[in-house]
Amino acid sequence: MYSKTIPTGFPKGFLWGGATAANQIEGAWNIDGKGLTTAEVVQKAQDRQNIENMNVISKETVATAIADTTDDLYPKRRGIDFYHHYKEDIKLFAEMGFKAFRLSIAWARIFPKGDETTPNEAGLKFYDDVFAECHKYGIEPVVTISHYEMPLNLTLTNNGWASRATIADFTRYTEVLFKRYKGIVKYWMTFNEINASTWGFMGTGALDSDLDVPGQTQLRYQALHHEFVASAIAVKQCHEIDPAAKIGCMLARMQTYANTPNPADVRAAQLQDQLNLFFTDVQVRGEYPEYMNRFFAENGVTLQMESGDEALLQEGKVDYLGFSYYMSTVTAADDNVEKASGNLNFGGKNPYLETSDWGWQIDPTGLRITLNEFWDRYRVPLFIVENGLGALDEVSADGKIHDDYRIDYLRQHIQQMKEAVKDGVDLMGYTMWGPIDLISASTSEMSKRYGFIYVDQDDEGNGTLKRSRKDSFAWYQKVIASNGEDL
Ligand code: BGP
User: Fold this and answer.
1) Using an 8 Å Cβ cutoff, are 343 and 359 in contact?
2) Is 92 domain-assigned?
3) Where is the active site (predicted)?
4) What is the pLDDT, as a whole number, of residue 68?
5) Best of 249, 276, 433 to mutate for ligand 1, by most ligand atoms within 8 A of CB?
6) Cα distances (angstroms) measured from residue 150 to each of 96, 118, 153, 179
7) Whole-model pTM?
8) Full domain range(s) for residue 52
9) Is 1 a domain residue?
10) CATH code for the domain in which residue 237 is found
């Protein structure tokens, strides 16, 4: 008789927590020897071009923004001043019962220009202190090594990841991190949303962002190849230096549906999915999948690989798959379909789904589908390292923030996660995005808020930076205390 038990809920030791990124929280952009980063010029470039989509920033505007390095009011330079508030913030995370806190290290704090041989001790010391503060409360740091930024100097000298030379700069940085934080950081991730590197500047750090310029597809996939190699080397280093640590990849996942049951739409959605899962195919399975050969041939891409690269990709397979999940998309074979509106929407409108204030199509069931698909395809532990609702919060007359909409969003997603666990998916943890309000990656605004903790600061940088608990704070505390039973 075949008899196996179905899990009843989240496993013991499930990593509940929240996720952030250095350039969206830290501030202190020029303090203690830190160098300027690419993230700190993106917003300026967007402002100058007056556009919403960061992926179409032109080369010229990025260059102008880079030339002006004096302004410290830009959102990704001021963050929420976590640099000086980390003790208070981590204490609040601990009060919610966090088991894990995902944060990124600002590469330019460790190597201000990226190409030095000796790291900046003050930068390393800052993260020593942050990790110590986490451990004081039994919180595991989950560290992204590169979250949408790099030392700006590497963009100016190497054109970011477009150059193979950046691999050596990166691996010098990662070696320093693994040695310094051996036994201190148990969970690492190499690149945040690595698929963003085929979208433009934020991912590649290369001045290639105008898609109308010929050769962009070539440049982006070549830059991405360099990131794959750098990631594989980092995985190997991590395993050699600290065999007890786990290191994963990180993908921006949008579950993709066919617009109709018309096989042409289904095939279009399948291709869309392949182009999205290509990244995890390389990083989890350790090789380029065959379907990309055809894509490269049809899109004029000829990858420059060195002998040994393919072996490295095999040796540098990740231990787990981390991913962000905010929404799903719809793909049709032709353009004759109503497009979803809002920022960062790539596909068609799904009439069955509601949207966030920014038009992101909210789809909790899609998360369950994604989890099942990932588990079927990869058989490595999964980690939801971002999920959340960006919303315009209002301070009520009673001085509080009653964010029931956020609770609803998170509750529905956690419910579907639980279903996936019962389906048999191996899920390690859940770090929702932005446990404390922070600067938005895509809009660089403060008013797109995700947090359980409100931060008194407006889009222009006015405010006391005072932290206060929203209604969702007590709710998440209860969720964690009951290991996801009391939703
Ligand atoms: C992901 C990024 C994060 C983040 C989040 C929410 O793409 O990894 O850095 O900010 O999305 O996006 P946004 O800030 O644009 O609302």
Assistant:
1) yes
2) yes
3) 386
4) 64
5) 433
6) 32, 17, 8, 20
7) 0.96
8) 15-481
9) no
10) 3.20.20.80
